[in-house]
Design brief:
4 strands; about 20% strand; about 110 residues; 4-stranded mixed sheet; alpha+beta
Protein backbone atom coordinates (compact mmCIF):
# COMPACT_ATOMS: atom_id res chain seq x y z
CA UNK A 1 0.00 0.00 0.00
CA UNK A 2 1.22 3.53 -0.62
CA UNK A 3 2.60 5.32 2.37
CA UNK A 4 0.93 8.54 3.37
CA UNK A 5 1.41 11.04 6.13
CA UNK A 6 -2.37 11.01 6.62
CA UNK A 7 -2.21 7.79 8.66
CA UNK A 8 -3.57 4.30 8.24
CA UNK A 9 -6.69 2.23 8.72
CA UNK A 10 -6.56 -0.74 11.08
CA UNK A 11 -9.05 -3.62 11.09
CA UNK A 12 -9.14 -5.34 14.48
CA UNK A 13 -10.53 -8.86 14.55
CA UNK A 14 -10.33 -12.01 16.63
CA UNK A 15 -8.62 -15.12 15.30
CA UNK A 16 -10.99 -17.28 17.36
CA UNK A 17 -14.32 -15.92 16.16
CA UNK A 18 -15.94 -17.64 13.16
CA UNK A 19 -16.80 -14.57 11.09
CA UNK A 20 -14.88 -14.94 7.81
CA UNK A 21 -17.66 -13.63 5.59
CA UNK A 22 -18.14 -10.50 7.70
CA UNK A 23 -14.39 -9.96 7.81
CA UNK A 24 -14.20 -10.18 4.01
CA UNK A 25 -16.78 -7.40 3.67
CA UNK A 26 -15.09 -5.18 6.26
CA UNK A 27 -11.64 -5.74 4.72
CA UNK A 28 -12.91 -4.99 1.21
CA UNK A 29 -14.59 -1.75 2.30
CA UNK A 30 -11.60 -0.66 4.37
CA UNK A 31 -9.19 -1.43 1.53
CA UNK A 32 -11.36 0.63 -0.84
CA UNK A 33 -11.33 3.67 1.45
CA UNK A 34 -7.60 3.28 2.15
CA UNK A 35 -6.88 3.13 -1.58
CA UNK A 36 -9.06 6.15 -2.30
CA UNK A 37 -7.36 8.21 0.42
CA UNK A 38 -3.88 6.79 -0.19
CA UNK A 39 -3.71 5.48 3.37
CA UNK A 40 -2.00 2.38 4.63
CA UNK A 41 -4.23 -0.54 5.59
CA UNK A 42 -3.55 -3.33 8.08
CA UNK A 43 -5.45 -6.23 9.65
CA UNK A 44 -4.64 -6.79 13.33
CA UNK A 45 -5.63 -10.16 14.77
CA UNK A 46 -6.05 -10.93 18.46
CA UNK A 47 -6.17 -14.31 20.15
CA UNK A 48 -8.75 -13.01 22.58
CA UNK A 49 -12.20 -14.02 21.38
CA UNK A 50 -14.69 -11.26 20.54
CA UNK A 51 -17.44 -11.24 17.94
CA UNK A 52 -17.22 -7.67 16.65
CA UNK A 53 -14.89 -6.39 13.96
CA UNK A 54 -13.55 -2.88 14.48
CA UNK A 55 -11.93 -0.36 12.15
CA UNK A 56 -9.69 2.34 13.60
CA UNK A 57 -7.98 5.35 12.07
CA UNK A 58 -4.43 6.00 13.25
CA UNK A 59 -2.49 9.10 12.31
CA UNK A 60 0.63 8.43 14.39
CA UNK A 61 -0.12 11.24 16.85
CA UNK A 62 -1.76 9.41 19.71
CA UNK A 63 -4.39 6.78 20.24
CA UNK A 64 -6.16 5.16 17.27
CA UNK A 65 -9.70 6.43 16.77
CA UNK A 66 -12.56 3.94 16.35
CA UNK A 67 -14.48 4.70 13.17
CA UNK A 68 -16.51 1.52 12.61
CA UNK A 69 -17.85 -1.51 14.48
CA UNK A 70 -19.87 -4.21 12.74
CA UNK A 71 -21.71 -5.02 16.01
CA UNK A 72 -21.58 -8.71 15.15
CA UNK A 73 -23.95 -8.23 12.18
CA UNK A 74 -23.33 -8.85 8.51
CA UNK A 75 -23.42 -5.77 6.28
CA UNK A 76 -22.40 -5.57 2.66
CA UNK A 77 -19.19 -3.83 1.61
CA UNK A 78 -21.15 -0.86 0.20
CA UNK A 79 -22.82 -0.08 3.54
CA UNK A 80 -19.53 -0.44 5.40
CA UNK A 81 -17.74 1.73 2.85
CA UNK A 82 -20.38 4.46 3.24
CA UNK A 83 -20.02 4.38 7.04
CA UNK A 84 -16.24 4.60 6.81
CA UNK A 85 -16.47 7.44 4.30
CA UNK A 86 -18.80 9.39 6.58
CA UNK A 87 -16.56 8.99 9.61
CA UNK A 88 -13.41 9.95 7.69
CA UNK A 89 -15.22 13.01 6.34
CA UNK A 90 -16.14 14.08 9.88
CA UNK A 91 -12.57 13.49 11.09
CA UNK A 92 -11.25 15.68 8.28
CA UNK A 93 -12.75 18.71 10.06
CA UNK A 94 -10.96 18.03 13.35
CA UNK A 95 -7.89 20.23 13.87
CA UNK A 96 -5.84 17.26 15.12
CA UNK A 97 -6.35 15.54 11.75
CA UNK A 98 -5.55 18.41 9.43
CA UNK A 99 -3.76 16.05 7.00
CA UNK A 100 -7.19 14.59 6.18
CA UNK A 101 -8.44 18.00 5.07
CA UNK A 102 -7.03 17.42 1.59
CA UNK A 103 -8.92 14.11 1.34
CA UNK A 104 -12.40 15.65 1.62
CA UNK A 105 -12.75 15.97 -2.14
CA UNK A 106 -11.88 12.27 -2.60
CA UNK A 107 -14.44 11.32 0.04
CA UNK A 108 -17.19 13.23 -1.72
CA UNK A 109 -16.59 11.54 -5.10
CA UNK A 110 -19.09 8.80 -5.94
CA UNK A 111 -17.88 5.26 -5.36
Amino acid sequence: MLKSDCGKLLVYTSTAAPHRKRLQFVKAATAEIAKRLKLEFEVVRFRKSFSQIYVYYENGNGEPIPIYCDEGKTSDAGEICASLKNMMFVLSFHPAHSALRQTRQKLMEPS
